[in-house]
Amino acid sequence: MTDKPQTPNQWRTLDKDLGRIIKIEKATQYVGQPLVAPGIAFAFILLAALTAGLFFGKGDTSFVVIAAAALGAYMALNIGANDVANNMGPAVGANALTMGGAIVIAALFESAGALLAGGDVVSTISKGIIDPTGLGDPQVFIWAMMSALVSSALWVNLATYVGAPVSTTHSVVGGVMGAGIAAAGLSAVNWTTMGAIAASWVISPVLGGVIAALFLAFIKHNIIYQDDKIAAARRWVPVLIGVMAGVFATYLAMKGLKKIVSIDLPTALTIGVVIGAIFYVTTAPLIRRQSEGMENRNRSIKALFVIPLVFSAALLSFAHGANDVANAVGPLAAIVHTEEFGSFAAKVEIPTWVMVIGALGISFGLFLFGPKLIQMVGSQITKLNPMRAYCVALSAAITVIVASWLGLPVSSTHIAVGAVFGVGFYREYHLERRKKKGAKLKPPEKLPAAERKRRKLVRRSHFMTIVAAWVITVPAAAVLSSLVFYLIHILRAVA
């Protein structure tokens, strides 16, 4: 018995059925792709909670620590998604690093900074915003810290979603302040400290922008506009690399090595000068060798800044991991200590398992959600090249050192993004100045006035969005935190 041959109509029917199956598979993949990152993030949060249960088995009280660990992991994911963009964005925007390369380098150095040099002894109340003893009951303090974690994480998550780089430090500060007010009234807050933090909203970005603009002006005047650009680069690029090495050595000595040894500012500056001199002597012959045979044009000069820019981005990530991991795990460490000993402590030692949650959370957040903000900072505010991005990285480190010397509480986010704006605004100023002097420039396109305004070197829409997000971060996190605290209080009363 033989099978009947397939008719053309049957083949067409089979093709249609296969086509429908393929469309269903493609639709499933399209719908499923956006769920992959949240799914991995949820799995990490669950793993953090399980880790807390494993290391903190204290009966009923462990459930509080488990919940706090999950919230700390959620906060760490958001720090990685938002804050790390400030370190890697300029290098990616300048095409010195690919997005994948930037994520790998940042994940490695953020984790190394957090685990090797982070979490020495952190203030559990975030820079003295509230006095824990003023809250009375240790349980009230625990719920206040939980509220701060929830509110700050939600706010940073929202900012990342809309594409606004905000300060996670200020988010935590706002969360702690709001919970403190909800728990014990306005008197619980140290308003002097809050005033200094409010002042840093202006000081951080302006100082970062001015320093970055000054370095860019120096490079243009001493290298770009010289007749022999290569000779000028051989003279000044090693100097700039030495400055970079010295600044980062000072920065890491002050901020990144507290866990190993405590170093004051004069000692850190001395270390910086010595390291800077060593790098100048070492790199001068290397730059001379690299520049041999290069054409006398700007593109050649940009190539000389690529490797120093990559190193500066990596070092910024290390320092960021050493310092900002406390934003995620500081409140968690406070909760763990209070649950374990049943009492307050102004400062606590962060357990290793808590530090690991913070370090891995930052890396996962960067990998899963970081590209959006990296692209924003690196290419959507103003156009960056290796020289401009180098000025941004150098400005960020110098500004933090100056602010520490002056005793000003500043935000690394505000400094880095302010430096990007400073570079962009300087480019606009410099272009207008050259036009007035009659320099030969590329003939401008004939565009309507509105379009010319839109095409300025700094995108005004991003500028307004970011500044608005900065201004409302502390009050928004505070309001959200107080609402969460009241909700927890109501639920506890009902239970």
UniProtKB/TrEMBL annotation:
Which InterPro entries does the record associate with it?
Phos_transporter
Keyword annotations: Membrane, Phosphate transport, Transmembrane, Transmembrane helix, Transport
Where is it localised?
Answer: Membrane
Gene Ontology molecular-function annotations: phosphate transmembrane transporter activity
Please tell me where this protein is predominantly located: membrane
- List where the protein spans the membrane: 35-56, 62-80, 92-109, 140-160, 172-191, 197-216, 236-254, 260-282, 303-322, 350-369, 389-406, 412-429, 463-488
Q: Which GO terms describe its cellular component?
A: membrane
Describe the family membership recorded for this protein in Swiss-Prot or TrEMBL.
Belongs to the inorganic phosphate transporter (PiT) (TC 2.A.20) family.
- Give the protein name, as stated in the record: Phosphate transporter
Taxonomic source organism: Oceanomicrobium pacificus
